[in-house]
């Protein structure tokens, strides 16, 4: 009898410990709807105190939407509630999932009820964030362990991720276009599902539910669904997105837990969360989820080992302090730890620890929930927002610099092409007339001409930098097209050359390579990261002894290979294994986030390529391998990747004047630009070949063209404050299409969606600021001769 009593006491004590330390809120109430017991998590969830909860009469709840479910348990039925809840004993508002069941006496009579409450606030916020960004949605859909399905308003499948295939057996091709009911919703579940569907289309709430589903092989499973309506910019529902998990086994485990504490071991064996037991600092039990989570095949591989060896070194002291407090009887809230898997990789986990009686002796039971994917999603969100902000800033800077820069380059060209030669001729005549020392003033003019040439060269370098800024500002446009990796590599080099020049000599070995299908800005992001890493691996102040080598060549199967090599100290073997892991960095705080190479790997992988490294003391090589593009029939000829008119900071082009060309027929040109200095500079530059009229307002230019439409060519700025170049084109296309055809659009950077779309569609010639002046002359001659 004493053994039975002791077993009963241990069982009750185990139940009480689980009740008090459970990671979800649990409460009990009697038939009079008075709260009789609750655990610490329940009070924490409602942000209240035990004194306020004591003997609470639930008839007086502030939010009575939960009462029907609570009262139904007193009728002997299991019930549930999910939705928004306003607490009575505090001002807290949370989204909750509440499951309720009756509590019966030995004679089967209902004595009260028990409720289990889970906070869904964070999950609902995640669903909201999912709707806000298509890019984040795509990343999550492909990698989510949950099934992700999107329907249109006719209940037809639009999206179907790999996890949905795993759950239901249908491939994406088989699922797209299928309509309910009759696909994965059996007829028996259709009335329930239809009611939820209609509520979603009315945007009444985010719905979470469980219902039967049918798989491809005919099996009926229990699916747990979290769904939300998708709305457009006008707030109209355009579809529904849902997350689904096969909880058939999970539901069976939950029912087993309600029936009997004797099945405690069976429950934790099936639990989806990782659960382990530690005594005297060593593992004594691990459930299958924990075994898989830590990357082992069997629990016996690490049972008996020190638990601290599974914790990141920087978190071990915190973990041991927490265990010491738990052993003294202190109840602790969940804590985050970084855990080390068998292969050395790091995972982030939220761990709830509590003191239990395990096999007759005190031990610490830990329940771990994987936070790794959430951390990675947060990192992607931050990185995406940061890149978007940098892109917008770069586009804005490029646009603001381009107009004054175009003015400077135009004036310098006018000075060296017309004003200085004329001035030198007149100076020589004055010297001769005044009997001055021959060549004295002329020599001064030669020196002035050299200074102006130097200024023009510096301005050309500025133009190259601005062009590269504009390239990187388009990182989020997602456009994939034929791309020359050498050009992208040189553009990236221009961006970071200031970081390299004081640290190392630069050697470029560019073999002929095919074009690849890529987004130029995204690929540039990879190369910039590798170049910066190479520079930072080298000490400053001894550039002659250090080397950075850039190499392109064709590898196996015609794949394009790009190598970035530095002569730094090399990367240790233990670091190599983790170099592409998220949040891993060897740089000091404030210098690196540990996300750069992880993001680079993601970009290259999505392009169908690979990135790896080889390292030894004195040589580290990062190698990017990409498949040849669909349009690449043969390697591009010539090692230079940049255009002939595009300066490269690492390899400056020579400034050589072009021979004079024969002047064509004199034409009439209208310049429309709100930057008056630039417009007047163009007038001065073009005056030797054309009669130029300047208008600094799109509105005034339209009025002028209505009176005098006879201009041979019209140079029109795209971005103007009153009437834009787009507006000018639309007005002329309606009333004078032949005049609209003579428009040449000039822009310092079209970084609004409207302007980008317009430039992609319009057939008129386009010029970027700062101008390629010879190209401008040639274009105007062509337009004038065509009239």
SSE inventory with pairings:
Blueprint: H1 2-21, E1 25-30, E2 35-38, H2 40-46, H3 50-53, H4 67-74, E3 79-86, E4 93-104, E5 110-119, H5 121-132, H6 134-143, E6 147-152, E7 157-160, H7 162-168, H8 172-175, H9 190-201, E8 207-214, E9 220-231, E10 237-246, H10 248-259, H11 264-270, E11 274-279, E12 282-286, H12 288-293, H13 316-327, E13 335-340, E14 346-358, E15 361-370, H14 372-434, H15 440-472, E16 481-483, H16 485-500, E17 505-510, E18 516-518, H17 520-536, E19 547-554, E20 560-566, H18 573-576, H19 596-606, E21 610-616, E22 619-626, E23 667-672, H20 676-686, E24 690-695, H21 698-707, E25 713-717, H22 725-735, H23 737-740, E26 743-747, H24 753-761, E27 766-768, H25 773-785
Parallel strand pairs: 17-19, 23-24, 23-25, 25-26, 26-27
Antiparallel strand pairs: 1-2, 1-5, 3-4, 4-5, 6-7, 6-10, 8-9, 9-10, 11-12, 11-15, 13-14, 14-15, 16-18, 19-20, 20-22, 21-22
Q: Quickly give the structural class.
A: alpha+beta
Mean pLDDT: 79
Largest sheet: 5 strands, antiparallel
Roughly how many Å is the radius of gyration? Answer: 36 Å
Estimate the strand proportion. 15-25%
Count all strands and give the number: 27
Order of strands across the main sheet? 2-1-5-4-3
Shape: elongated
Unreliable sequence segments: 634-658
Helicity, in percent?
40-55%
User: How many helical stretches?
Assistant: 25
Distance between the termini: 114 Å
């Amino acid at each position: 009898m004493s053994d039975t009593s002791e077993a009963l006491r241990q069982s009750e004590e185990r139940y009480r410990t689980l009740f008090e330390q459970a990671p979800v809120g649990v409460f009990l109430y009697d038939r009079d709807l008075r709260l009789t017991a609750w655990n610490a998590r329940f009070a924490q969830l409602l942000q209240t105190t035990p004194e306020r909860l004591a003997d609470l009469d639930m008839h007086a709840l502030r939010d009575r939407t939960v009462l029907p479910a609570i009262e139904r348990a007193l009728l002997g039925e299991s019930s549930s509630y999910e939705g928004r809840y306003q607490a009575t004993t505090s001002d807290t508002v949370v989204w909750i999932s509440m499951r309720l069941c009756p509590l019966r006496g030995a004679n089967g009579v209902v004595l009260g009820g028990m409720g289990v409450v889970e906070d869904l606030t964070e999950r609902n916020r995640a669903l909201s964030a999912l709707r806000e960004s298509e890019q984040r949605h795509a990343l999550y859909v492909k990698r989510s362990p949950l099934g992700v399905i999107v329907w249109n308003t006719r209940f037809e499948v639009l999206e179907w991720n790999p996890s949905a295939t795993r759950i239901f057996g249908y491939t994406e091709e088989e699922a797209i276009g299928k309509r309910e009911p009759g696909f994965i919703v059996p007829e028996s579940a259709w009335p329930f599902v239809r009611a939820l569907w209609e509520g979603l289309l009315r945007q009444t709430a985010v719905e979470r539910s469980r219902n039967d589903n049918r798989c491809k092989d005919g099996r009926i499973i229990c699916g747990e669904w979290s769904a939300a309506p998708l709305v457009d910019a006008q707030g109209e529902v355009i579809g529904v997105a849902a997350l689904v998990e096969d909880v058939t086994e999970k539901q069976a485990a939950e029912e087993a837990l309600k029936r009997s504490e004797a099945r405690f071991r069976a429950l934790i064996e099936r639990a989806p969360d990782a659960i382990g037991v530690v005594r005297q600092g060593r593992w004594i039990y691990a459930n299958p989820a924990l075994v898989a989570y830590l990357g082992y095949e069997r629990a016996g591989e690490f049972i008996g080992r020190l638990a601290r060896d599974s914790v990141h070194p920087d978190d071990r002291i915190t973990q041991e302090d927490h265990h010491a407090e738990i052993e003294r009887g202190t109840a602790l809230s969940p804590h985050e730890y970084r855990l080390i898997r068998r292969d050395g990789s790091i995972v982030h986990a939220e761990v709830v620890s509590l003191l239990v009686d395990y096999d007759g002796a005190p031990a610490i039971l830990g329940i771990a929930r994987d936070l790794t994917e959430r951390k990675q999603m947060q990192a992607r969100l931050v990185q995406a927002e940061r890149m978007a902000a940098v892109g917008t800033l770069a586009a804005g800077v490029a646009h603001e610099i381009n107009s004054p820069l175009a003015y400077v380059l135009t004036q310098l060209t006018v000075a060296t092409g017309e004003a200085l030669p004329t001035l030198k001729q007149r100076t020589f005549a004055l010297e001769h007339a005044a009997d001055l020392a021959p060549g004295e003033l002329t020599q001064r003019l030669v020196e002035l001409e050299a200074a102006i040439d130097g200024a023009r060269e510096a301005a050309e370098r500025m133009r190259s930098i601005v062009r590269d800024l504009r390239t990187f500002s388009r990182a989020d446009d997602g456009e994939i097209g034929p791309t020359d990796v050498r050009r992208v590599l040189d553009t990236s080099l221009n961006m970071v050359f200031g970081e390299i020049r004081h640290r190392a000599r630069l050697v470029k070995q560019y073999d002929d390579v095919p074009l690849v299908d890529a987004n130029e800005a995204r690929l540039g992001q990879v190369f910039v990261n590798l170049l910066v890493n190479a520079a930072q691996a080298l000490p400053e102040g001894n550039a002659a002894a250090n080397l950075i080598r850039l190499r392109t060549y064709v590898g196996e199967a015609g794949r394009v290979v790009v190598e970035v090599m530095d002569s730094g100290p090399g990367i240790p073997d233990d670091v190599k294994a983790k170099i592409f892991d998220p949040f891993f960095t060897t740089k000091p705080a404030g210098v690196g986030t540990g996300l750069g190479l992880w993001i680079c790997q993601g970009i290259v992988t999505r392009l169908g390529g690979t990135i790896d490294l080889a390292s030894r003391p004195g040589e580290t090589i990062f190698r990017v391998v990409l498949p040849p593009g669909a349009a690449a029939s043969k390697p591009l000829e010539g090692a230079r990747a940049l255009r002939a008119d595009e300066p490269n900071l690492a390899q400056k082009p020579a400034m050589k004047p072009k021979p004079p060309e024969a002047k064509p027929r004199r034409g009439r040109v209208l310049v429309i630009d709100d930057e008056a200095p630039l417009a007047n500079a163009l007038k001065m530059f073009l005056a030797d070949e054309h009669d130029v009229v300047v208008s600094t307002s799109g509105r005034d230019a339209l009025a002028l063209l209505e009176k005098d439409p006879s201009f041979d060519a019209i140079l029109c700025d795209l971005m103007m404050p009153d009437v834009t170049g787009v507006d000018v084109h639309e007005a002329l296309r309606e009333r004078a299409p032949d005049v609209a055809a003579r428009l040449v659009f000039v822009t310092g950077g079209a970084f609004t969606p409207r302007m980008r779309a317009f430039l992609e569609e319009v057939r008129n010639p386009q010029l970027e600021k700062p101008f390629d002046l010879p190209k401008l002359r040639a274009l105007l001659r062509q337009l004038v001769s065509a009239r």
